Amino acid sequence: MTAHAHSDHHSHGALQMGHHHVSSSQQFLSVLVALLVLTGITVGASRIDFGSANMLIAMAIACIKASLVIAFFMHVKWDTAINKIVFLSSFLFLALLFLFTLVDLTTRRWDSYVNTIRTPVDHGWVQPAPKPDAHH
Amino acid sequence: MSHDGHHSVVIPAPGPEFVPHTVAHHFDTPVQEFQAAKLGFWLFLATEILLFGGLFAAYFYYHETYAETFRVGGQQLDWQLGAVNTTVLLLSSWTMAMGVRSAQTSQKGKTLLFLGLTVLGALIFLGIKYVEYSAKNQHGLIVFSHLFDGYDQANKQLPWFQDYGGVMKDVPHGHLFFAIYLTMTAIHGLHVVIGAGLIIWVMKGAAKGRFHAGYFLPVDLVGLYWHLVDLIWIFLFPLLYLVP
C-alpha cells in the first residue's frame, strides 16, 4: 500500500491529510498579547476627543486586530490560494455594500421638516412676486 | 486506493490512545477530503461576514444620521463589562488556536484542556451578557419582555413603543441605538451559544481519540467558527460600547 501510494499522484496525502503548517505556541502567545494591547489602545483612544477621527482610529485598530486573528488564529496566512480568495472576497463585497450605502448617505436629501417644507422663497434664494392688490 | 469503490482510505492512529480515521468513501484521498471540507467551510464563513456586514452597514448609516442618539446610547452601556468580555473572547480565541494546535500535534490531554477552557470562556461571556441584558431590560432599554403583549387599544400603540424608557426618550429616534445593539449582540450571542455547542461536540470526539496529527479536520473547522465569533466582537466592542 505504501509503495503504491508513493507512486500515486496524490502520494503525499495517502496516509495523512497532507502537510500542514503548525504554528508555534510562542507565535500564538505573541498574537494574543498584541490583541490585548490593541484592545487597551482602543479604550484609551476613545477617551480622547479627536472629533470625527475617533471613528477612523477605532476602525483602524479593529482592522489590525481582525487581520491578526484572520492571518494567525484562523491560519489564513498558510491556507491555500482558493481558500484565501473565497474568504477575503467576502470583504470585497462588504466594501461594495458600504460604498453604495455611503453614496446614498451623502447624497440623500433628508425628508426632515426643514428640507421638505422650506421653499426657495423661504431660503431667500428668490423674491416673491409682488401682490396684485398693491396697485389699488 | 478507493477507486474500486470497495476499500476506503484509512489514516492510522498515531498511538494507542487514538483511533484511526476512515476517509469518507466519496473522497479519493485524505487531502481531497480535507480541502473539500475546508473550502466549503470558508464559503460558509464568507456568508457569515455578509450577514453581519449588513448589520454593520445599518449601524454606520444610522450612526451618521443620528450621531447624538448613538452617543447617548453608547453611554448607557457599561464599557468595562464590554472590555472584560472582549478580553474573555480574545483569550478564548487563543485557547481555541492552542486546542487546534494540540490536536495537530497529537496531544490528546492538551486538546481537551484547551477546548474546555474555550467553552469556559464562552460561558463567562454569556454570563456577563446576561447581566448586561437584565440591567438594560430593567431600565426599559430592551423591550423584549413586552414582545408578546397585546395591542394597547387605549393608547393605539404596541406596548413596546410606549414603554420605551430612560434617557433614550429624549433623543431623536432613541429606539434605534438599542434596536441595533440588541440585534447585533443577540445574533452574535447566538453564534457564541452555537460555537460552544460545537466545541463540546468536538471535545466528545477528542475524548474518544478521534483527532490527531493524521486527522484534525472537525477541530480545525470549529476553531475557524470560533475565531469568526471573536472577529465580529472585535468590531462590536468599539462601535457599541465606546461609540466613536
3D structure, described in words:
The complex is a heterodimer of chains A (136) and B (244). Chain A is built from six helices and no strands. Chain A is mainly alpha-helical and 136 residues long. Chain A folds into two domains: 22-78; 80-125. Chain A is elongated and about 95 Å long. Chain B is mostly helical. Chain B has a single domain, classed as Four Helix Bundle (Hemerythrin (Met), subunit A). Chain B contains seven helices and two strands; from the N terminus they run ββααααααα. Chain B has helices at 30-65, 67-76, 79-104, 108-138, 159-162, 175-207, 217-241; strands spanning 10-11, 21-22. Chain B has a two-stranded antiparallel ribbon with strand order 1-2. Chain B starts with 9 loop residues before the first strand and ends with a helix. The relative contact order of chain B is 0.17. The chains are: A mainly alpha (136), B mainly alpha (244). At the A-B interface, helix 2, helix 3 and helix 4 of A face helix 1, helix 3 and helix 7 of B.
SSE layout and pairings?
The complex is a heterodimer of chains A (136) and B (244).
Chain A: H1 2-7, H2 25-47, H3 53-73, H4 81-107, H5 113-117, H6 120-123
Helix pairs in contact in A: 2-3
Chain B: E1 10-11, E2 21-22, H1 30-65, H2 67-76, H3 79-104, H4 108-138, H5 159-162, H6 175-207, H7 217-241
Antiparallel strand pairs in B: 1-2
Helix pairs in contact in B: 1-2, 1-6, 1-7, 3-4, 3-7, 4-6, 6-7
Tell me about the biggest sheet of chain A?
Answer: none
Low-confidence stretches of chain A: 1-14
**What is the SS-derived class of chain B?**
mainly alpha
First and last CA, distance of chain B: 59 Å
The average pLDDT value of chain B, as a whole number, equals 90
User: Largest interface by residue count?
Assistant: A-B, 56 and 61 residues
Briefly say what this structure is:
The complex is a heterodimer of chains A (136) and B (244). Chain A has helices at 2-7, 25-47, 53-73, 81-107, 113-117, 120-123.
